[in-house]
Design brief:
The complex is a heterodimer of chains A (261) and B (384).
Chain A: E1 5-14, E2 17-27, E3 32-36, H1 43-50, E4 58-63, E5 66-67, H2 73-79, E6 81-83, H3 96-103, H4 112-117, H5 120-137, H6 146-149, H7 158-170, E7 176-180, H8 188-203, E8 207-211, H9 215-221, E9 224-229, E10 232-237, H10 239-244, H11 246-253, H12 255-260
Parallel strand pairs in A: 3-8, 3-9, 6-7, 7-8
Antiparallel strand pairs in A: 1-2, 1-4, 4-5, 9-10
Chain B: H1 2-9, H2 18-37, H3 44-68, H4 77-90, H5 101-123, H6 129-148, H7 150-153, E1 166-167, E2 170-171, H8 175-197, H9 200-210, H10 212-217, H11 222-248, H12 258-271, H13 276-305, H14 315-322, H15 328-342, H16 351-358, H17 368-376
Antiparallel strand pairs in B: 1-2
Helix pairs in contact in B: 2-8, 3-8, 3-11, 3-12, 3-13, 4-5, 4-6, 4-11, 5-11, 8-11, 9-11, 12-13, 12-15
Classes of the chains: A alpha/beta (261), B mainly alpha (384).
Chain lengths: 261, 384
C-alpha cells in the first residue's frame, strides 16, 4: 500500500541556511507520527512544504502517491490535508462558528451568482454547514457551548483557541491532519485530554502528523517518532527507542550531557 | 463573563432591529421627493438627493472591496468613469450611436469589470500601501486617457447631449424620475451585496482580510476570491457611472478626479468599514453636507432668526458657511480625524470591524480573565 505521505530527499534553503536538508520519511495510513527536535530544526518548515506555503528546492513530496509540489495551499487542502499553526492563526474577529465554517470553504459549492441571488440551494447548504460545524465543535465536549459559538474567537481562552484551530482543520474532513504543537500552552490535564482526542481522531480513520515538544504526548500518543536537528532527520523509530538514542540526547542536551548520560 | 460578551457582540443600536432601520431608511428615501413636489423644500434638493444616491452606489461598491476584503482602492472612481464614458459614447450624438438602456447598462458594467480584471491581474498580489499606489495610478491613468484621447472622448470638452434613457418603454426625463430610477438600483445593490456578505463568498473575504495564510490553508483560493470582489465592485461602479451619465446628460474628465476616490473612501470610513448601512449613511451625509450647510445659512436659519442674523459675525465665518463647498475637503478631513480618535469603527459599525478595531493583539492578550471564568464554569481544572 502506498504511504499517505512521503518525503523524498526534500531540501529547502533560505539564503545560505538549509532549513530542511535531504529529508526523507514516510507516514502510513492511520498512523500517529510525531516530529520532534530542538527549536529551529526545520519541523515547521516541513509542514509549510507539505501545505504549499513553501516550495522545496529539491526533492519531492508525495501524498497518496501523487506529488503536491507546485500546488497552492488551497489545492493541497482540497486533496485532504489540513493543518493547524504553531502561533495561532485564527480569524480572531470572526465568531467561533464562522471560523469552523471557513474551514469548510472547499467542501461547499455555493458560487458567486447563487450567493448574490441567495438561491434556496445556498440557504440549504448554509444550514447544513452550520449543523456540521456544530458537530465538529462537539468533538470537544463542554468547551464550545452554544453561547460561546457566537463569540469572537479572540474571546476564547488560550487552550480553547488551540482546540478551535483543530476544529477548523477538521472542518474540511481531512485524511491527513498536521498539528503544529497542539498542546503548547495547555496545562497537564488539558494536555492529557487533547492526547485522548487525538487518538480518537485516529480511530475515526484519520492519519496524524504532529510536531510536539511535550514528552508526555510524544510517548503517549505517537506510534512513531521522527527526530530532526539542523534540518536533517537524525533518528526515527518507536518512542521508547528514540528517547534513548545518543544522537537524540546530544541534539537536545549537548555533547557533554550526552556523554554523561 | 458578561463583560466579554458585551464588548464582542452587542449590536450598534440594540433597541431596534436592523431590518426595521433599513425599511425606515428606504421609506424616507422614497418619500423625500414628495417634500420637493409639495414645495416644502426647494427643487435643488432633488438634484442633491439624486447625486447622493449615485454616491451611495459607489460607497456600497467600494465597501465590498475595502470593507470586506480589506484592500485599499484609491482609484475606484476610474470604474465609475469607464461606466460613464461607455454610456456617453454609445448613447449620444458624438458618434451617432443610440444603444438602448439595458444593453448599454450591461456594456458599461462589463467594461468596468474587464478593467477591474486587468488591473487585478498584476496588482492583487500586492498588499497594503503597494496596492493603494497601483490603484491610485490606475485611477489617474484612466482620467488622463479620457482627457487626452480627444478623437474619441473629445478631451476636456467632454461629451454633451447624452440621450435620455427609455426604461421598460418609459422615457425617463424629469429629475424626480431619475431619482427613483437610481433608488431602485441602490436597493438592488444593497440587497445583492448583503446576500454576498452573508455567504460562503463573504466569509472567505473576511477570512482573507484577517489572515491570508490561514485562509488559504483553510481552502480559500485567495487570488480568485479577491478578484471576484474587485470585479463585482467594479461592476457596481460601472452601473453607477452609466446612470450618472444618463442623469447628467454631460460628462467630462473633471467629474472623475482623484479627490472623488478619496471622498468615497472617506464615506465608508465615516459610515463604518464593512457596514452596508454605514456606507449608505456616510455617502448621504458627506455628499449632501455642503448643500445642507449652504441652504441652512442662506435660507432656513434666516427664516427663523431673521435676515441679518449673521450681521455681527466675523467675515470669515460668514463666507465659511455660505461658501461651504470651498471648505468641504477641510471639513471632511477634520471629521475623519475626529472619527478615528473617538469612534474608529464608524457611525454604524459592522460587527467584525468593531471587534477588529477594538481587539488587543490576540497573541499577547492575557487570558487570566478567561481562565478564571473557565474555572468558575468548571470547564477547566484547577490543578496545574
Amino acid at each position: 500500500m502506498t504511504p499517505i505521505l512521503e518525503f523524498k530527499n526534500v531540501t529547502k534553503t533560505f539564503g545560505g541556511l538549509s532549513a530542511v536538508k535531504n529529508l526523507s520519511f514516510t507516514v502510513d495510513r492511520g498512523e500517529i507520527v510525531s516530529i520532534i527536535g530542538p527549536n529551529g530544526s526545520g519541523k515547521t518548515t516541513a509542514f509549510n512544504l507539505i501545505t504549499g506555503i513553501y516550495q522545496p528546492d529539491y526533492g519531492d513530496i508525495l501524498y497518496e502517491g501523487q506529488s503536491v509540489v507546485g500546488l497552492r495551499p488551497d489545492q493541497v487542502q482540497g486533496l485532504g490535508i489540513a493543518r493547524t499553526f504553531q502561533l495561532l492563526r485564527l480569524f480572531s474577529s470572526m465568531t467561533v462558528l464562522e471560523n469552523v465554517l471557513v474551514g469548510m470553504h472547499g467542501r461547499m459549492r455555493t458560487g458567486v451568482f447563487s450567493a448574490i441571488l441567495r438561491l434556496p440551494s445556498v440557504v440549504k447548504e448554509e444550514r447544513k454547514a452550520k449543523a456540521k460545524a456544530k458537530e465538529i465543535l462537539a468533538l470537544f465536549p463542554g468547551r464550545f457551548s452554544e453561547g460561546r459559538q457566537g463569540q469572537p474567537a479572540q474571546a476564547l481562552s488560550y487552550a480553547n483557541r488551540r482546540r478551535l484551530e483543530i476544529a477548523r482543520a477538521l472542518a474540511s474532513d481531512p485524511k491527513l491532519l498536521l498539528l503544529d504543537e497542539p498542546v503548547a500552552g495547555m496545562n497537564p490535564a488539558e494536555t492529557m485530554e487533547l492526547m485522548h482526542q487525538i487518538r480518537d481522531l485516529r480511530e475515526a480513520g484519520r492519519t496524524i502528523l504532529l510536531i510536539e515538544h511535550d514528552m508526555k504526548v510524544i510517548m503517549g500518543a505517537s506510534d512513531r517518532v521522527i527526530v530532526m536537528d539542523h534540518g536533517e532527520k537524525i533518528a526515527e523509530g518507536i518512542p521508547d527507542v528514540v528517547a534513548k538514542d545518543p544522537l537524540v540526547v546530544e541534539a537536545y542536551l549537548g555533547k557533554r550531557a550526552a556523554s554523561i548520560a | 463573563m458578561s463583560r466579554i460578551r458585551n464588548t464582542s457582540n452587542a449590536p450598534a443600536l440594540p433597541w431596534i432591529p436592523r431590518w426595521m432601520l433599513a425599511l425606515a431608511a428606504l421609506l424616507a428615501a422614497a418619500a423625500f421627493p414628495l417634500l420637493v413636489e409639495y414645495g416644502v423644500i426647494q427643487t435643488v434638493w432633488i438634484r442633491v438627493g439624486t447625486r447622493a444616491l449615485v454616491y451611495v452606489l459607489l460607497a456600497v461598491g467600494l465597501n465590498l472591496i475595502m470593507g470586506e476584503t480589506g484592500m485599499l482602492n484609491l482609484g475606484y472612481i476610474a470604474f465609475f468613469a469607464i461606466g460613464a464614458y461607455t454610456t456617453a459614447l454609445f448613447s449620444s450624438p458624438r458618434f451617432g450611436f443610440e444603444v438602448p438602456f439595458w444593453p448599454l447598462l450591461v456594456m458599461s458594467a462589463g467594461l468596468a469589470m474587464l478593467a477591474g480584471y486587468l488591473v487585478g491581474l498584476p496588482s492583487l498580489r500586492l498588499r497594503g500601501d503597494y496596492l493603494a499606489i497601483v490603484t491610485l495610478a490606475f485611477g489617474e491613468v484612466t482620467r488622463y486617457t479620457f482627457n487626452n484621447w480627444e478623437s474619441v472622448t473629445n478631451g476636456p470638452g467632454g461629451i454633451p447631449g447624452i440621450y435620455r434613457p427609455t426604461v421598460f418603454g418609459y422615457l425617463v426625463e424629469r429629475p424626480i424620475e431619475f431619482y427613483y430610477l437610481i433608488l431602485v438600483f441602490v436597493v438592488l445593490a444593497v440587497l445583492l451585496v448583503a446576500n454576498l456578505k452573508n455567504s460562503r463568498v463573504g466569509r472567505a473575504w473576511n477570512a482573507l482580510r484577517e489572515d491570508e495564510i490561514a485562509a488559504e490553508a483553510a481552502g480559500i483560493h485567495g487570488m480568485r476570491a479577491k478578484m471576484v470582489a474587485l470585479v463585482i465592485s467594479a461592476a457596481i461602479a460601472g452601473v453607477a457611472g452609466s446612470l450618472f451619465a444618463y442623469y447628467q446628460q454631460f460628462i467630462n474628465p473633471t467629474y472623475f478626479v482623484f479627490m472623488q476616490s478619496v471622498i468615497i473612501v472617506c464615506m465608508i470610513v465615516l459610515g463604518g468599514l464593512g457596514s452596508i448601512p454605514g456606507a449608505v449613511l456616510g455617502a448621504v451625509v458627506l455628499d449632501s453636507l455642503p448643500e445642507f450647510t449652504r441652504q441652512s445659512f442662506s435660507s432656513w436659519l434666516p427664516a427663523i432668526f431673521g435676515r441679518d442674523f449673521m450681521a455681527g459675525w466675523p467675515d470669515f465665518l460668514r463666507t465659511f458657511f455660505l461658501d461651504f463647498d470651498q471648505y468641504r475637503m477641510l471639513i471632511v478631513g477634520l471629521v475623519i480625524v475626529v472619527m478615528v480618535i473617538f469612534r474608529p469603527e464608524g457611525l454604524i459599525p459592522d460587527a467584525l470591524w468593531r471587534r477588529e478595531v477594538h481587539q488587543e493583539d490576540p497573541r499577547e492578550q492575557e487570558h487570566t480573565l478567561q481562565t478564571l471564568f473557565d474555572i468558575e464554569e468548571g470547564k477547566q481544572d484547577l490543578e496545574v
